[in-house]
Amino acid sequence: MEKKNLAEKAMTEGKGILRLAPTWVPRSFCRPGKRIKLHPDDYFALGMERGGICERWLGSLAKALNGPKTGETEGMSYVLEDAAVKSTRLFKDYVDELGSDLIGEQLMEKYGTWPTFAKLYDYDKPLFHHLHLTEEMANKIGMHGKPEAYYFPIQYNSAYLGRFPLTYFGFDPSTTKEQVMDCLKNYDLKDTRITELSRAYRIQLGTGWYTPAGVIHAPASLVTFEPQWNSDVNTIMENVTMGEVNPHHMLTDCAPEDERDNLEAIFSQIDWEESTRPDYKETYFRVPKVKSETTEAIEKWVAYANEWVAAKEVTIMPGQTYTLTDQACYCAIVVQGHGTFGGFECEAPELVHYGDITGDEYFVSETSAKKGIKIKNTSSYQPLVLLQNFANNNPEVPASI
Question: Measuring CA to CA, how many Å separate 45 from each of 28, 50, 51, 54?
């Protein structure tokens, strides 16, 4: 059977829902927090030299930028085509072959693909002070920019918040450009302590933030649900993070070849106005907004009021059945409970081996999202909770805070 016919068959059998296999991503620069349900024996499943698995990517077409040993499809999601034999195929192939039948005409016409994904990242220590390139800057190296949103799910953070549950955003408004340039000039000479120029906010579970591309930030050590644009571009401007040295190449990896020795060009990657705005929290902190609330379920927007990505948290009460209706395609992950999602059995995993198939991740076509997905919570005791991430084409997303 031709590949496109297989994709159409999977869509028909799933009634517009594709079941995705877990996509695990290692990182060499930070230790895993070990809270994303992976078996403790498997955090170094790709080899010690690759680092520990710290991230799970959801509905991803993007390849991870993980150095010269990165696999050809590392970071990219797979569709489970046959659960009995665990056969899978790249989610990207499904998007390419099905096009608007899967993601809708608007996204297909504007981007030609599913332009976003989400991740669960899980670091025991905070990440370094870094930024993601704007679209303009990323285009110089043939990549896309990376705006992103954060949500801090209670289900993954109830026992341990990591070693530093605060996030640095931007720079204090009193900071001068000369102070930041001094940090870049001394990157290879001493601990520049660049976060002394920043502002830290203690993270509140069940809330979130939006981070525009170009804003420097150092994320907290919580498990974070992160809807983002299809990219993995970073410029690391902090040279020592909690005693761990960040090599020079992390400052220059995402600069064009002819700009890697030009500190002024690297500095220009910073969106200075957004990074130093005095009302940063008032502008980018996100409290959940209730979309609907019934005796059966609660829907809350947890990422909204930006031009790029959106996300919802949906809670189905014990023993209840609910039809979830949306105006755009999306990826969904179950973070608590068990039941059915459309025609699939679904559950939040408690412990997963690398390579195991789970029943917690799904992609829903635009047509099926508009018709509505019937979700049943088969537990008499606990809620069934899932997180959805959307691109920027859902007209129901709140435009303001």
Answer: 13, 9, 9, 12
Evaluated on CA atoms 258, 260, 264, 265, the torsion sign reads positive
Per-domain residue ranges of the chain: 26-66+115-286, 289-390
Query: To 10 degrees, the CA torsion angle through 280, 304, 201, 199?
Result: -30
> Beta strand 384-390 with 208-211: parallel, antiparallel or unpaired?
unpaired
Name the nearest CA neighbour of 114 among 104, 124, 123: 104
378-399: per-residue pLDDT in tens? 999 999 999 999 999 999 999 9
Cα–Cα distance, 315 to 297 (Å, whole number): 5
pLDDT at position 30: 81
* Contact by Cβ (8 Å): 118, 312: no
Asked if the domains at 26-66+115-286 and 289-390 fall in one CATH topology, the answer is yes
**Residue 292's CB: how many other CB atoms inside 10 A?**
13
Tell which CATH classification among 2.40.440, 1.10.3470, 2.60.120, 1.10.8 matches the domain 26-66+115-286. Answer: 2.60.120
Q: What is the pLDDT of residues 133-142, one digit of tens each?
A: 999 999 999 9
Question: Dihedrals φ, ψ of 119, to 5°?
Answer: -145, 155
Q: Residue 366 — pLDDT band, cuts 50, 70, 90?
A: very high
Going by DSSP bridges, is the β-strand pair 235-236/208-211 parallel, antiparallel, or unpaired?
A: unpaired
Cα angle value 278/281/287 (rounded, 5°): 160
Instruction: Print burial letters for 183-192: b (CB count within 10 Å at least 16), e (below 16).
Output: bbeebeeeeb
Q: How far is CA 277 from the centre of its chain?
A: 25
Task: Tell which phi-psi region holds residue 259, choosing left (phi > 0), alpha (psi between -120 and 50) or beta.
Answer: alpha
The answer to whether 215 touches 199, Cβ cutoff 8 Å, is: no
DSSP category for residue 32: B
The domain defined by 289-390 carries CATH number 1.10.10.10: no
Q: Residue type at 376?
A: K
Contacts of 288 (CB under 8 A, 6+ apart): 206, 207, 208, 300, 301, 302, 313
